[in-house]
Amino acid sequence: MSDLFSKGSFVPIDKVFVKESLCALDALTEIQNKYKRMDMDTLLNEIHDSMVGDYLGFSLINTEKHGFDCKYSKSKDIFLESKVASYYAKELSATFNDTNLEKAEAFRSSSVWLSLSIWESVTKLLCICYGQNKEIGDFLKNKIINRKEGSRSTQSITLSSLIFRYNFKLLAVSCTQNELIAKLALHNRKFSELEVEDIQTLKTFKTLL
Length: 209
What we know:
Blueprint: H1 15-35, H2 40-56, E1 60-61, E2 70-71, E3 79-86, E4 93-97, H3 101-106, E5 112-119, E6 125-131, H4 134-145, E7 154-158, H5 159-164, E8 169-172, H6 177-185, E9 199-201
Parallel strand pairs: 3-5, 8-9
Antiparallel strand pairs: 1-2, 2-3, 4-7, 5-6, 6-8
């Protein structure tokens, strides 16, 4: 028998949980109808990407599935690729799905920024990791070229790698610098090496450009 049949943790359906969740989602349904955002994944992505882009100084959001997520302004062709992760995931990482060589090469450009936002809940943004590094483009390109034939082009870069290898910056959003270090260290002891001075706050953050 395949290992697939032994995977999973099956528990009785909690009808109270389902009922309360549907009640809470009714308000979101009204937003979907009002703004014509009927696809749930697209709706949440647009909300999260809009918040991250706004904090980092990007004023335009991409409402289509293709292309980068945010643009700095109509007059400046500076783009942001926004990746999102839950704080409660096993590993905090930026995932690149269906990446092609053109997209990989774009990360070598000074016109493209990358961010990884960490969320404690669907509405609570813990922090944003952001930056640029040409080596990310090289990493993605290498993974695409050397992937197993017929496999999907999916790559991941951990938050730890973004900070300690690619020299990305951290912006604390809903907590203090010390609180952020403590929370991240629970995931990976490497984060305990961070100093308060390594982390920006909304008060100290200056626009990227």
